[in-house]
Amino acid sequence: MEYDVIIIGSGPAGYVAGIRAGQVGLKTAVIEKKDVGGMCLNWGCIPSKAIIESAKFYDRLDDAADFGIDGLDKQQLSFNWENAKNRAMRIAQKLTGGVEYLLKKNGVDLIRGEARITSPNSVSVENRSLDAGQIIIATGSYPQPLSFDVPKERLLELESLYDESELPQSVAIIGYGGVAVEMAQFFQMIGRKVTLVSPEQNLVPLADQYLNDYIYNRLKKDKVNIIFGDQIEGYHNGTLKVQGQEVEAEKVLNANMRNAVLPPSDIDIQRESGFITTDRYLRTNHESIYAVGDVNGRSYLAHAGSAQGLFVINHIKGIKGEIDLHEYPINIYTNPEMAQIGKTEEELKKEQIDYKVSEFPLSANGKALIEGYKDGHIRMLSEKKYGEVLGVQIIAPHATDMIAEASAFMQIESTIYDVARSIHAHPTVSEIFMEAGFDAVDKAIHK
């Protein structure tokens, strides 16, 4: 069988590329050896955010009386893990079913099995040979193994978390990044004893120092035990020995940073630090083979993988462009959420750009107070001479949604003056954008 495009992997990078390829008339096949939707839809982005939402719901019940709800005794309530994970799985299954439908709707062949690259223009699947004008590798990544031994019954991998019939009363989370801090807060919100062991001082490496300082202080406030360092002596009978301390941990959760998952190949595909090396058009050392998403190491974000998939299909169709990771938001689904886009303050200092910081707190926003939230800020970084917005950071309950507004005005190189004169409905949390714009121009209205 001969195709215009063969895509290996059906996660957010692969299936989005597949759907778009079908839409623009390319004869396309997507090869998947396990679950359609990849890590994100099956055990990553979607189910993890679903259980975090359940935990936030449970956590907010502490404020029920303040909202005028009597008769609710939090001491009589408990978090039902079975119901929470079943809800998460129902959502995931609905979305994966939708992906299969869209692939079929757009004429994309979904082929089950493990793909092996046999040449720059051919792939074999279960002893079946397929030819293609272009091959796209979208096989994703997987958390690195822990550096110490943990009995199988005591180890929690993110992929198998939803197989657990009940959750431990104490847990040690090993790793750093968005997943590690999200899971630390998840267990904390449902009343578990949590220790987060991070080899890095900055818990979210790509985030601005402002966000890193915030999440560190928030976790400490929520009584999450944080240990920095990678000197883990071992784990035995529910006790983790790390940095000279003994930590109670009924189970250990692996939230390590991830390694690329590489498909078997009969040809040499260049790699660097374990990830596939790509040029500015996301091509490998073979012009007919591209690599998108986690597997190329440029980003671990699902939406960045999807954007890369679309970019490659455009490139195959002759539409040229460039990939700029600063155009993609970084979302962290903590409580409250954190998000950023554009350059960080550290990057602006390094590049010796003359910039201005403008801020506005949620504690001065009417809608945030109505909803019971006052912990959060918007922070805007702008170039001093012309006022172009260079970066935005948000800490707010819906920061991961609100950052899309910053993405839109940064795409068209908007200035602080454009942001200040944009009309926002009242009362809405999004008014903090206007306030930050005024704060940059002169003075915020309500500050």
Largest sheet: 7 strands, mixed
- Give the name of the CATH superfamily of the largest domain: FAD/NAD(P)-binding domain
CATH topology of the largest domain: FAD/NAD(P)-binding domain
What is the global morphology? globular
- Classify the helix fraction into a percent range: 25-40%
Query: What's the CATH architecture of the largest domain?
Result: 3-Layer(bba) Sandwich
Topology, number of strands:
24
Number of helices: 12
The whole-number mean of residue pLDDT values reads: 95
Give the N-terminus to C-terminus distance in angstroms. 65 Å
Structural class: alpha/beta
Compute the CA-based radius of gyration: 23 Å
Return the domain count: 3
Residue runs with pLDDT of under 50 for 5 or more positions: none
Kindly summarize this structure in a few lines:
By secondary structure, the protein is of the alpha/beta class. It has 12 helices and 24 strands.
Please give a structural write-up.
Strand 5 and strand 6 form a beta hairpin. The protein folds into three domains: 2-143 and 259-326, FAD/NAD(P)-binding domain, CATH 3.50.50; 152-256, 3-Layer(bba) Sandwich (FAD/NAD(P)-binding domain); 336-441, Enolase-like, domain 1 (2-Layer Sandwich). The protein contains twelve helices and 24 strands. The mean pLDDT is 95. Strands 1, 2, 3, 4, 5, 6 and 19 form a seven-stranded mixed beta sheet that branches. The protein has 447 residues and is of the alpha/beta class. Helix 3 runs antiparallel to helix 4 and helix 3 (45-60) packs parallel to helix 5. The chain has helices spanning 12-23, 38-42, 45-60, 81-105, 178-189, 209-221, 302-316, 345-350, 366-370, 399-411, 416-420, 431-441; strands at 2-8, 28-32, 109-112, 115-119, 122-125, 128-137, 141-143, 155-157, 170-175, 193-198, 225-228, 232-236, 239-242, 245-248, 251-255, 258-260, 271-272, 275-276, 289-291, 330-332, 337-342, 355-361, 377-383, 389-396.
